Amino acid sequence: MSGRPIRSGAEYIESLRGRNLKVYLMGEPVSEPVDHPIIRPSINAVAETYDLANSNPELASAMSPLTGERINRFLHIATSPADLVMQNKMQRRLGQLTGTCFQRCVGMDALNALHSVTFDLDRNNGTGYHDRFKDFLVRVQHSNLVIGGAMTDVKGDRSKSPSQQADPDLFVRVTRRTPEGIFISGAKAHQTGCLNSHWLIVMPTMRLEAADKDYAIAGAVPVDAGGIAYICGWQSCDTRSAEGGEIDAGNARFAGQEAMIVFEDVFVPNEHIFMDGEVEFASTLVERFTCYHRRSYVCKTGVGDVLIGAAATIADYNGVERASHVRDKLVEMTHLNETIYGAGIAASHQGMEMKSGAFLPDEMLANVCKHHVTRLPYEIGRLAQDLAGGLMVTLPSERELRHETIGPMIEKYLKGRADIPTEDRIRILRLVENMTLGRNAVGYLTESMHGAGSPQAQRIQIARAMQIEFKKELAKTLAGINSASRQEIADDLSTYMARVFAPVQRN
Amino acid sequence: MSGRPIRSGAEYIESLRGRNLKVYLMGEPVSEPVDHPIIRPSINAVAETYDLANSNPELASAMSPLTGERINRFLHIATSPADLVMQNKMQRRLGQLTGTCFQRCVGMDALNALHSVTFDLDRNNGTGYHDRFKDFLVRVQHSNLVIGGAMTDVKGDRSKSPSQQADPDLFVRVTRRTPEGIFISGAKAHQTGCLNSHWLIVMPTMRLEAADKDYAIAGAVPVDAGGIAYICGWQSCDTRSAEGGEIDAGNARFAGQEAMIVFEDVFVPNEHIFMDGEVEFASTLVERFTCYHRRSYVCKTGVGDVLIGAAATIADYNGVERASHVRDKLVEMTHLNETIYGAGIAASHQGMEMKSGAFLPDEMLANVCKHHVTRLPYEIGRLAQDLAGGLMVTLPSERELRHETIGPMIEKYLKGRADIPTEDRIRILRLVENMTLGRNAVGYLTESMHGAGSPQAQRIQIARAMQIEFKKELAKTLAGINSASRQEIADDLSTYMARVFAPVQRN
Amino acid sequence: MSGRPIRSGAEYIESLRGRNLKVYLMGEPVSEPVDHPIIRPSINAVAETYDLANSNPELASAMSPLTGERINRFLHIATSPADLVMQNKMQRRLGQLTGTCFQRCVGMDALNALHSVTFDLDRNNGTGYHDRFKDFLVRVQHSNLVIGGAMTDVKGDRSKSPSQQADPDLFVRVTRRTPEGIFISGAKAHQTGCLNSHWLIVMPTMRLEAADKDYAIAGAVPVDAGGIAYICGWQSCDTRSAEGGEIDAGNARFAGQEAMIVFEDVFVPNEHIFMDGEVEFASTLVERFTCYHRRSYVCKTGVGDVLIGAAATIADYNGVERASHVRDKLVEMTHLNETIYGAGIAASHQGMEMKSGAFLPDEMLANVCKHHVTRLPYEIGRLAQDLAGGLMVTLPSERELRHETIGPMIEKYLKGRADIPTEDRIRILRLVENMTLGRNAVGYLTESMHGAGSPQAQRIQIARAMQIEFKKELAKTLAGINSASRQEIADDLSTYMARVFAPVQRN
Amino acid sequence: MSGRPIRSGAEYIESLRGRNLKVYLMGEPVSEPVDHPIIRPSINAVAETYDLANSNPELASAMSPLTGERINRFLHIATSPADLVMQNKMQRRLGQLTGTCFQRCVGMDALNALHSVTFDLDRNNGTGYHDRFKDFLVRVQHSNLVIGGAMTDVKGDRSKSPSQQADPDLFVRVTRRTPEGIFISGAKAHQTGCLNSHWLIVMPTMRLEAADKDYAIAGAVPVDAGGIAYICGWQSCDTRSAEGGEIDAGNARFAGQEAMIVFEDVFVPNEHIFMDGEVEFASTLVERFTCYHRRSYVCKTGVGDVLIGAAATIADYNGVERASHVRDKLVEMTHLNETIYGAGIAASHQGMEMKSGAFLPDEMLANVCKHHVTRLPYEIGRLAQDLAGGLMVTLPSERELRHETIGPMIEKYLKGRADIPTEDRIRILRLVENMTLGRNAVGYLTESMHGAGSPQAQRIQIARAMQIEFKKELAKTLAGINSASRQEIADDLSTYMARVFAPVQRN
């Protein structure tokens, strides 16, 4: 974590080499992930977050109030609504550039959440987590590292709390405490970009009870700490990246990544512990993190831009782009895509200041944003498949295209518009397949469904925030029903209506 | 327009008395609209815009850069994204307080649009409209008047332009010009709140050609100018306001209003003319006005809050509020309602500065907002009817409730939960009826569909703004297709992507 | 009930005169419903069921196995899938001809349900209800009478059973028993067409417990029996039928009807009692009735045909029928409308024979049909409003059209295509208003939602019938999961999958 | 085609061996498709169509009027609505048993369409195709062969007709005629189950003009005829079938199949030609085939049953099956699935007799059925992913599960409910992945979209059949608009309304 800062995507990729990680993929240990054909595209996606900060610093970097230096925006704590909005804009742009998950939002959102949670925790308990956290943050900002956030425990029997599980390891927990620090064990599932990070921030995954004290742990761990194993998922069509050629992968250069992380007595020294046993703050941390993170799914609008573009391109290649129903479907896809964007931007814009000075997005709108993300990309994907035509799933492989005798048949018979190379038509169809069935459908669809909380989690949050009693009063008043007292809009910004009707500072 | 400013809802109502308007309703002339039982609720709704400015000045008033005075926000020109956002917040609040259309947005949006259009028109043509417009605006701000906007012509045969119509009056036009001003004739349909305004701003309704010069007219006309007739619509259930009692109307105090305005050689003096013959600016004016106005439909989220509250109340009165499907429907209604709000706020937040200094909302997001308004209130209304139960359409009248022998039967048999008065149950059901079938369904549903442009109008705008070529390049790049040149995001904020990726000023 | 049979709509209308009914509407007693301008359109709609039987006997009549005579199909017991299907076809046609609810299905479905329930009840309990019921049926068939079904109790506190209510009358119950019969008291809400019937069939509304014995009552009562009062609902825009003119009503000739029926010690002689105290058969009766009745909502596809036609007509009158988005909306409306029809026909086709020889529609598909009816007419209505344009809610009244000075303005300015009379344009817009906001929106929308059970009732039935364990076995088998035993499709037609895979008799 | 009939799935598989087919898959020739691990599952699926005919002959076989023998239902010509309905029931059952496309419907639908088309063609032109066709059919029925239908040409530039293409081979065409027969060249794309068939029936893919005479060709060709090459698609996750293990494939035993067929001067003798040059019957054949085939997508309801079962199973394994939102999602999935079934059954039930004696499904309802198939499986799939949880896309491979050191970690950490083996949980998740992203998503989603015609094709057919003028008359009549003549329902069953209102024969 010392050493000179990483200054580009290329330097970032180099920084990952030579770590002695214990990684498994398809039953085999992976000695050097950077060179593994299935893993590499996910590393390339993270690398884009460095390069964009160079090519468009206003979008993807920020001035750190902590260091006074210009830092990557993924390491910046938002201290205004404008900062929150800029996160969304950067996310959309990276979605456009990679067409996939660039994996760095979890860390950004974890850092932002910990900023205010450690502050509030200290104020409440007289602890010193916030300063520790800031020390860690300064070093990370200076070195320009990738932070992974590790939240989702494997959970076991969902009807039982962590401490009630038959196997105590089904949630990550403290197994031993020493004067220098703690040892943790357990496993985190579906960890986005973990292999491609430098540090992991471990956090609890749900509200905890007093009995769950050993599970109320937050802290930072180097990715190559002793005792960690990474078990990669075998995801739809990912082996195509290892089959040679570049067409059949659809998006040869970029991909997402999920793995399970298994911790076996991993040591965390005191200076990297940001919560230890304060069960009453576990849900606070979870809620703030998900509030940031649900709105971070604005990234999918950038991915959606790519898919809309792919659908329009194949319609163009087929010679039907001007058909009114084609045009209308592109409009609908755009309408849906911008719906997500609008909700995300509104959530960021209506953010509120926490006591630590960090800004938190509006919780209601963040949930509305993510809830759309669990629905609309599926419909955008369906429409893309409609425009693509059936060929997107019956294409022969690139090897047929290159084949001495079969190749000419492919060239001849898969020709669309005369002026478009058959290969280009195939390439764009493979991209649509990649995004709706293949490797990136994992990120664009299923992860959109479950990442940062499944749909029901958002509905629960919306239910909590919807202030139904306030709305009932509105209705009763207009219906002429006498009511004990007309409920006023609270001043307390912790309620949604107070935030809705709060004056906006002139910007 | 001189005289002391209007300072409250009550003063506003008084200001409407004694005008010698030619008004027809259900075949009868209306001598004093203020006292007409069907018209009065719509006047009450406008009056709330005055009272809110007093009770919550931060929300509903603003400091005028023109006069240096605090003025009603409906008369304020937005000179920052924050101003645009505050318009939306005020609109939502007034929707909550009235449960209907408070009719004053058209004027606000017309004034804002004219501010930049007259400026640009003068820059282009060397005319002096902008100063004239500002003079008018200063007086209006000072007197605190209600401005109605009159845009929608009756249109006749939709396949023909104004000048091609068999009857030249099917679009409002200049019939005569004198050194002092012009005379106009024609009719504007569906005019919201026209009777309840002090001035009307007449504007063209569509793109015009050179031959349509006499139709390229914008100007201000007092509501009681000679030659104007107002023909009120007969709207669903509006006669209930005249039947005595207050329950059956559902929302006895507030309602919307639409009428047709017929102009017969109405004189407009030069100082109130803001465009005359500049056909090339007609579409500019229409597009800017609709951009403001489509996002102004955020008001419907306030109305939606009332309907959600009404649905929750009746579920409560029926004793089923805790049922999981009831709860889930309230969540869905909230999710949809906040979707509209989010898109509107994002449109305002992402507004851009015009040369005149006025800020215009983001066009794409404004259209996305309005497009949702043409769909989601119908679904919210459907869910409200689901929760209300069939009784909402089979209720006997208030007269039965008050009837000597029938009244006790009603009391006995329409009782729900024992602790809730039968009358309260009836009242809330009548409110749901009012908002989904009755007088306010006109505003909450059909006007949501067609006001500020029908759904297809938004789709056309979305199609224009969706930058499909930019998105095709994104896809081709990722698919590995060689393309002449990778298209960069333009700096020109007139394109959507430029606005998306423009840095936000820190606020 | 003796006397010569009713042979036409006109004779039916005459048959209703001179009954001494106690009817209230808008606070006033109605001496002769036949002549009441608000009630009459609902009588006209029933009359069409007689006239169609004459003009198209194959569609609207059937040969009675009981009497050997050709009878109105509404009085026929279905003894084959083809009979069930023909009910749906007749219903659609009557929906087309009246554009509203013709009110006679409740009785048809009640008779069909009682046929098998009384048979099964007798087989189980050794009672003699089935013969009694058939005697009644023969007389009714012979006289060609209208039967209303009275099921929906007012229910009071929904968390309590009938016998637990504070007021025992909140469900209809037996108050006294004599050797000759019983006396009943209570009230039924939302009773479709009750005033326009000759007999009412009273039935329980829900599953009953042993303590609810006095509520387990089914029987036939003449509409003019002593002790009955009818309290009509005041429904959206129904007073327009009493305002003179015929345009503003939208559909001047036809309408639906709902009223509350209050029973005060009404006597039912033994020969008209079809269930008395057999609480265990209450839910059987409710379930069979709703099974028939949910599929009977195919009538709404006929009403939908009218609304689709109205939307196409106004698009035509506006000169935009050929626009691709207009065409596309008409296709979507048709697709949705035929979805309801398809589910209904499939439910009827897949009907199963009961022990009495009557055929019952498929319960799953009947619920799927009705569940669509709670959603799709709202979307069809929304699309109709889209095509209609805003004028449908801002139209002045017919009186303005006929007004000496205002009339010519209306003629001039509400002109659409030059070759279409302004009045015709207004007429079709008023029809769309009638069907989406006005008097018939009550039937096409809200009654579609709640009639024959609210949406959640269908979901509960679908959940019961969905055989999730069978489907889990299918999945486990394909996933290679060892399972105790592969579950076979049962032979018992009482499960859905057995009916799905039952061979169809060749027809 | 001689030899003894195939009597079981096993015999069918043997019948495929040793054919000298020219097959390519992933760039390699496939010497024996039966033994190829990627192809074999698709053969297994077809084999089920033989075994079901043995285990449930009423469902999957029929008595042939041509041969007097009991034959497989896939080779039977439907001569009653009941026959059409039984096709749907068999299709649903096979979908349940295989969870994929069993590939034999295309042939069934092609045979049924050719029966009436050759008959009508002969009546019109005095040709002798119908007898030829019946001769072929008798032999096929006797030998119990699999017939593939080859319709979809590769099409090239979609704005040009076959004869206008730069390359004349972009539609299959006659290249040479001899006294004994014809030679054909060209290619058919997306051919379902072609490799697994014994015969292919070649048909034109669209309406043809006079200039397209050489493209108006229908005939039967043995799959192993000289000059044919098969180029298999590389489909999502299909290589998993070749990676060893059986879990990761999700559905190890069954799969669908699509390939491109390239014809190079393939000879068709006269006795196997069923159309040659009669361009005016090309569209008739296409329309009748698609009418049968669009309703054949009822098969997807059987596949849907599997997916619903899989979703319920994983909810069960996670311990949340009783949660109300889980239950509600299963209900919704069922509702949508049965919607497709209902529309299909109704289409079959409302089938009409052709002059040849064959029955054709109702065209409107067949299109409504298929149009739902282009939408609802996507939503069912989305809901299945919702219930599955994110683990369905982050699972490690079976090799990790079997791995000495990693295996125990997987066992420990991917445990859900304590009583469910981890492996079973993984198996069911892999099945959901298979059906929503993997190999069978090709069939359940994308093929549902495009097979038998893309969505717009159905909308065009619905538009043609929707009888909008008839519906306009209904509306005008009710609105009181004088119309030249009230349009009656035609007797001609070729219109939809005539079929709707036609009496049903009692069955």
From TrEMBL, chains A, B, C, D:
<dbReference type="Pfam" id="PF03241">
    <property type="entry name" value="HpaB"/>
</dbReference>
<dbReference type="InterPro" id="IPR046373">
    <property type="entry name" value="Acyl-CoA_Oxase/DH_mid-dom_sf"/>
</dbReference>
<dbReference type="InterPro" id="IPR036250">
    <property type="entry name" value="AcylCo_DH-like_C"/>
</dbReference>
<feature type="binding site">
    <location>
        <position position="192"/>
    </location>
    <ligand>
        <name>FAD</name>
    </ligand>
</feature>
<feature type="domain" description="HpaB/PvcC/4-BUDH N-terminal">
    <location>
        <begin position="9"/>
        <end position="275"/>
    </location>
</feature>
<dbReference type="InterPro" id="IPR024674">
    <property type="entry name" value="HpaB/PvcC/4-BUDH_N"/>
</dbReference>
<feature type="domain" description="HpaB/PvcC/4-BUDH C-terminal">
    <location>
        <begin position="282"/>
        <end position="480"/>
    </location>
</feature>
<dbReference type="GO" id="GO:0016627">
    <property type="term" value="F:oxidoreductase activity, acting on the CH-CH group of donors"/>
</dbReference>
<dbReference type="Pfam" id="PF11794">
    <property type="entry name" value="HpaB_N"/>
</dbReference>
<dbReference type="InterPro" id="IPR024719">
    <property type="entry name" value="HpaB/PvcC/4-BUDH_C"/>
</dbReference>
<keyword id="KW-0274">FAD</keyword>
<dbReference type="InterPro" id="IPR009100">
    <property type="entry name" value="AcylCoA_DH/oxidase_NM_dom_sf"/>
</dbReference>
<dbReference type="InterPro" id="IPR004925">
    <property type="entry name" value="HpaB/PvcC/4-BUDH"/>
</dbReference>
<keyword id="KW-0285">Flavoprotein</keyword>
<keyword id="KW-0560">Oxidoreductase</keyword>
<protein>
    <submittedName>
        <fullName>4-hydroxybutyryl-CoA dehydratase</fullName>
    </submittedName>
</protein>
